[in-house]
Write a structure and sequence with these properties.
This protein is α/β, with parallel strands linked by helices. It has 2 domains: about 325 residues, Glycosidases (TIM Barrel), CATH 3.20.20; about 90 residues, Immunoglobulin-like, CATH 2.60.40.1180. The strands form 3 sheets. It has an 8-stranded parallel barrel. Strand 5, helix 10 and strand 6 form a beta-alpha-beta unit.
Length: about 575
């Protein structure tokens, strides 16, 4: 990144900071309810000696008359994301267009037919910026493309191709820290007189020791209490929303997955939202807050993010991200906990809030490992995800059952991010090969590749396609309200709900246990002479609304019942 590409704070930047300050003052006057967790409890206190002061604004002469308070952008989340299917892609591992073994942007463009065949609405690309690491979360230049992945021209072509299919694309945005190879940090390191001196959190006066993300010296933390940092990062985000800088946001990304939002202070996140929403109100802000309960998540919604990853649900369904077989989908735990979680979210989240449901990502062990590669449980996971309200997310390779879990030094999470397995022999057009360690999880002719599953009607790949197509074509599953069912079960493991929209209802019932169970819906939610399970095609006798209805579910199975003509 060239230093002369940095924009000064400017008048607009001052307005953003004023807006944030006003909101914070209002929040400070309101007493939190007893059930709220103070923000400081989950984010920590501001770094010692740092305050959120507008250094650039401080040179402005005070007005003789009071300045009107800036208006905060109304909290309206993008309706296009409310029921989306999001697909997370690690560019390095996905598809290699030039045969050098590293995935690239052209490779993704060439695989859009496949992606769309899954029912995907929106792509999420992990960091695309220049970076010294494989993962890219230490950004060396916020305004450019990693040369391993191609060029800005390639990126624009991908965005245009995605939009031409009526799909959307979001990218990772990393505001909490950057790379120690970034020219901004390099200019300030060992240089207290640098114009970027106050952009980082230093631990000594010589600027040779500094705070890093997770104590990692390769990722220096930004000083978000410096308004120049706020303005710089906001401007970097706007760059990707409007790639041609012509005021036409159709050529840019549709939003951001914002990394590590539990570190930056609230003031910064409010200001970032203001900047993005002022430019493009329809842009998505999806935050990663790895917290454990709805109360903590809710604090990021009203003035900061449209959507948040539902980590409490992930932890309930999959357990620890580093331990396999300890979640509900593996048969551990009581399903009543899911009911309690959904009820808590309904109470804590504002009406506009969008929780994003997911069952794995690039920081977790993959579903196949979590569930011991059990085919029935992998299908159970797919059916559960496809039936949940709000947007849902797939991690690339999840649809074919790719395994992967955290390994030892020096590769660690690379084992969770292995090359997408396109072919039986892991060799062919677009196949990446950047990480092919002998102890990797994915191997040739293991039954886990697109080629091996594409033409197998009963494959996991085609099961994912089926359940996601049913989701898209069933209004009750895309926009329907959710009501939890009261069940009587012959043994623990049963759980279910009904979703309804425009006169259509669907009752989804699950058995998370390793045993067959009888499940009685105490008050059946709709009347029908015949019922059809959309997952199996089986027809069941109907019943009247309000009557008890009993089903037998196989171990690790699901039934989706709708009204059917006899």
């Amino acid at each position: 990144m060239m230093l002369d590409r940095i924009r000064p704070l400017g008048v607009l930047g001052v307005v953003w900071l004023q807006a944030a300050s006003i909101l914070l003052a209002a929040c400070a006057q309101a007493s939190p309810t007893p059930t709220q967790t103070p923000v400081s409890d989950i984010r920590g206190s501001p770094p010692s000696g740092l305050t959120f002061t507008a250094t650039a604004a401080s040179t402005v002469e005070p007005a003789l008359t009071p300045t009107p308070s800036p208006t905060l952008i109304p909290y309206v989340s993008p309706d296009w994301f409310e029921d989306d299917i999001l697909y997370e892609i690690f560019v390095r591992s996905y598809a290699d267009s030039d045969g050098n073994g590293v995935g690239d942007l052209k490779g993704i463009t060439g695989r859009l037919d496949y992606i769309q065949s899954l029912g995907v609405d929106t792509l999420w690309l992990m960091p695309v910026y220049p970076s010294p690491s494989d993962h890219g979360y230490d950004v060396a230049d916020y305004l450019d493309i990693n040369p391993d992945y191609g060029s800005m021209k390639d990126f624009k072509e991908l965005v245009a191709a995605v939009h031409a299919r009526d799909m959307r694309i979001i990218i990772d945005f990393v505001p909490s820290h950057l790379s120690n190879q970034n020219s901004l940090f390099q200019n300030a390191y060992q240089n207290p007189d640098s114009e970027y001196s106050d952009w980082f959190v230093w631990l000594n006066d010589a600027h040779t020791s500094y705070a890093g993300f997770a104590d990692n010296e390769e990722m220096p933390r930004f000083n978000h209490y410096n308004p120049d940092v706020v303005a710089y990062l906001s401007d970097a985000a706007l760059h990707w929303l409007d790639l041609d800088r012509d005021g036409d946001y159709s050529d840019g990304v549709d939003g951001f997955r914002v990394d590590n939002i539990t570190f930056p202070p609230r003031e910064f996140l409010v200001a970032l939202r203001q900047a993005i929403k002022q430019a493009n109100p329809d842009a998505l802000l999806l935050g990663e807050a790895w917290v454990h309960n709805p109360s903590d998540l809710s604090q990021f919604f009203p003035d900061q993010f449209d959507a948040l990853f539902d980590f409490p649900l992930y932890e309930l369904m999959q357990g620890s991200q580093d331990t396999n077989g300890d979640g509900m989908l593996a048969g551990k735990g009581l399903p009543i906990l899911i009911t309690s979680l959904f009820e808590a979210e309904a109470q804590r989240f504002p009406a506009e809030a969008i929780p994003l449901r997911f069952l794995s990502n690039h920081d977790t062990n993959r579903i196949a490992n979590e569930l011991g590669a059990d085919p029935a449980r992998q299908r159970l996971a797919a059916s559960l995800l496809a039936s949940l309200p709000g947007p849902v997310m797939l991690y690339y390779g999840e649809e074919i059952g790719m395994p992967g879990q955290k390994g030892g030094a020096p590769y660690y999470d690379n084992y969770r991010r292995e090359p997408m397995d396109w072919y039986t022999q892991e060799d062919g057009p677009d196949q990446t090969s950047w990480f092919m360690q002998p102890d990797r999880w994915n191997k040739p002719a293991d039954g886990i590749s697109v080629e091996e599953q594409e033409n197998q009607p009963d494959s996991l790949l085609n099961y994912y396609r089926t359940v996601l197509e049913i989701r898209h074509s069933t209004p009750a599953l895309t926009h329907g309200d959710l009501s939890l069912l009261e069940l009587e079960v012959s043994s623990p493991g049963g759980w279910g709900f009904v979703r309804s929209k425009d006169g259509q209802s669907l009752a989804a019932v699950y058995n998370f246990s390793a045993n067959p169970i009888d499940v009685t819906i105490k008050e059946f939610p709709f009347t029908s002479e015949a019922l059809k399970d959309l997952l199996s095609g089986r027809v069941y006798p109907g019943t009247a609304s309000g009557e008890p209805y009993t089903l037998t579910l196989l171990p690790a199975s699901a039934i989706w019942l709708v009204e059917s003509q006899p």
